[in-house]
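Researcher: Let's continue the batch. This sequence belongs to alanine--glyoxylate transaminase, and it's 386 residues. Same format as the previous ones, please.
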Amino acid sequence: MSSQPPHATLLIPGPIEFDDEVLQSMSHYSESHVSPPFVNTFSEVLVMLRKLFQTTDPSAQPFVISGSGTLGWDMVAANLVEPGDEALVLHTGYFADSFADCLETYGVKATQLTAPIGERPQLDDVEKALKEKPYKLITVTHVDTSTGVLSEIKALSELVHRVSPDTLIVIDGVCSVGSEEICFDDWGLDVVLTASQKAIGCPAGLSILMVSGRAIERFEARKTRPTSYFGSWKNWLPIMRNYEAKKPSYFATPSPQLIHALHTSLSQILSRPLSARFADHRAASLKIKKAVTALGLQQLASKPENQANGMTAIYLPEGIAPPDVLPSLVKKGVIFAGGLHKEIATRYIRFGHMGVSVTDAGRGDIERAIGYLEEALGEVGYKVPK
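Model: Same format as before. Here are the structure tokens for alanine--glyoxylate transaminase:
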């Protein structure tokens, strides 16, 4: 049983519910960010991140910097491309628009390759786009939080390496790292960016990246200064290398309490094989998607291969809007998210299923949420088709 005060279970696509030990780590007493105990903790966090991303390449470098997942976009735009460069953004929802906007803020020319809502750009179309002009990087949202669409990374990376080998492969993994498999080395990725508050199961406030040696070489060869000060790898790269080597270092003050919470969460994640964690998320996802179908409802991502394992975006029945059901769900004790995709926001809701709500079956979060969803729909007159 959790020792946390009673509260409605948070089942949105992040932030997610936290394990008690993770929250307790946040109450760590104040300490210097350059003290040996803290530096040792930070070093262990960076080493564990290598295991989570499945990389053993010593030229790759993990980063953990105070900020949200959005800071990862800024660091990519500020360090890996220069004003006037071309970037190809694969569009599966709201967050592709935002990443493209971020790139353009830094003077980069962002070309979006779109797909219908609930779909993802097809590899043939990606290949055609890559052959039309040289792109410094390609970005893809592994799981778009607005649609629940899962992108297939391995085949995409193989295509990019074959057709446009100089193009860096950047993965927005904010809603995927910790619930979807990512093989950084084997898939030949250059950047995977994420945040602490989703499947990693830590409070919000940390921007996390894994960066390849090839990407670092690209950064070091740039002709102009990085276009951000706080996000500049000129400032952060030596800090991360020093912390991992257990050497005190300073550029900007980290959050010791969040680092302790991340240390606890990563220790829990890595206490068993990653394959078992991913299998748990697949099983929970299948249970939810089967229940959604049984309720006569449809997902934004209608094809199984496009469906994420850590969240489900669900179309509501005709004539029913998110405000008709979300308040009822809160009263029953679960919190879902409303729609985010601007074209259809009033037509769907989002169910997040990541972290302890999935891996700790004794909590019963998933089963209760499915039951409450059926009840809430019934209260507004919806009848499940027989």
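Researcher: Any comment?
Model: The chain has a mean pLDDT of 97.
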